[in-house]
Design brief:
By secondary structure, the protein is of the alpha/beta class. The protein has two domains: about 20-265 and about 485-500, Glycogen Phosphorylase B (Rossmann fold, 3-Layer(aba) Sandwich), CATH 3.40.50.2000; about 285-480, Glycogen Phosphorylase B (Rossmann fold). Helix content is about 35%, strand content about 20%. A nine-stranded mixed β-sheet has the order 3-4-5-2-1-6-7-11-12, sandwiched between helices. A six-stranded parallel β-sheet has the order 15-14-13-16-17-18, with helices on both faces. Strand 4 (about 85-90) and strand 5 (about 95-100) form a beta hairpin. Bound molecules: adenosine-5'-diphosphate and alpha-D-glucopyranose (GLC).
Amino acid sequence: MASSAVAPLPRPPKQLRILVASSEAHPLIKTGGLADVAASLPIALRALGEDARLVLPGYPAAMRQLRNPQPRGALVLAGYRRPIGLIQGLHPETELPIYLIDAPEYFAREGNPYSDPTGRDWGDNADRFMLFCRALVLLARGQGPIDWQPDVFHGNDWQTGLAPWLLNDGAGLPARVFTIHNLAYQGLFDRATFDRLRLPPAAWSISGLEFHQRLSFIKGGILCSERVNTVSPTYADEVRTPRFGCGLDGLLRKLGGRFCGILNGIDDRVWNPASDPLIAQNYDAERLVLKVENKLAVQRALGLPRHEEALVLGYIGRLVEQKGVDLILAILPELLKDPLLQVLILAAGEPHLEQALLDLAAAHSRQLGVFIGYDERLAHQIEAGCDAFLMPSRFEPCGLNQLYSLRYGTPPIVHRTGGLADTVIPATDEHLRAGRATGFVFNEPRPEALFAAIDQARRLYRTDPPAWRRLILTGMAQDFSWTQSAQRYLRLYHEALADRLSPASDP
Ligand code: ADP
Ligand code: GLC
């Protein structure tokens, strides 16, 4: 039995070789926070001296942006008619080595990695990510066309989930770490798909990949990795309860000490108001007065009157149930009765939410600016230009936008859940007096609660400018750099290695 004392980790014989696998990575291809993490974690690990490398599907956008791409030869996968290529290159702005799995039949599609231009999941997603997992397995076993085998295989989210499962048998295999960025996405497919993927029939069982009569990709990662984590301590607690566990809470509870939460960090190269090339005016804590230039610029960018005195609230994100945009929609008509308040929204997702936002914007053209679509530059401009940032997510595994808004001096207004609860210090009287507060937090995901939190922010902004300024500066001073989180991952890798080498010591 493991004792509560933390056992010293075996000294690594050498620099660790870590293969990070993801279905997206910034700036090659991005739909959300996973992309930011998948790029910045291996970059941070390399800065700590480890040999981390990244592997992604070879989407056209990724192929175009890879620096110095070199075809490395074929990956020979049983059962696939056409040869699969491996391209090696570098991250566009750093020395991070990146491998792309070149399988045009599966990945040479423009746009979103998961869905077609109408927003529907690609019908062959199971086949696409099965192929990705099989390619990952070859690389992890050191059987690819490169002279490099990882000590640790680090999978992320369901698209990589079957790789740890396929890496279960055999000698000389890497230790496996699996990160859940969002348990609501599990990669579930029907029985016919399971049969088509040529998985062993025995895998169709409760103790295998079956989940309520469906094939679950994510279960493979959870069941077969030496260490599993999610992206904040609070979300790690939440997913072990039926309310947030999406049916997998029991399995996660069973992992005991093999499961934990590690907060994401911020990539300072990309998200830093002092050097951000995408914003109108750079600033930092010492030059905070300059921030207002960004407010005027973003008001103009979204077609609103330039108004220095207005309290400007921002929102950026996917329009899905998780993000609680319906709560914002519910209170907007009341909120916009305040002529000195503006709201800026950059979002894309469910068509009915897009339409509802556009309709409201048409009715409030001087106060509500809505841009439907994905726009990296505008995202930076909103973070820099708004006075406060809305994040009423029903659940949030970590959340990056509240971290960016803290960094940009744009206090977040958040629901107390997951990573939002772990990263925003509420503006209670006590925290304000002590100079600890960084944002506004409400307890229940209901419109009235969001409204009350916005109202609290509005009052502080208008009646106590010194307190507001202190709130901003405290937020800007928070350290969410990747260094700390990367060190935590490193520890996890060592624990996973120790377990892989002596499986008997598993809890
Ligand atoms: P999630 O991964 O659940 O979408 P996060 O807060 O972790 O949420 O990360 C979202 C990331 O995606 C942030 O970097 C955010 O700026 C970006 N993002 C989301 N929607 C858009 C959009 N419409 N345009 C530009 N960037 C966006
Ligand atoms: C997921 C989560 C988000 C998290 C991101 C990166 O998309 O929804 O909360 O920040 O992954 O880990």
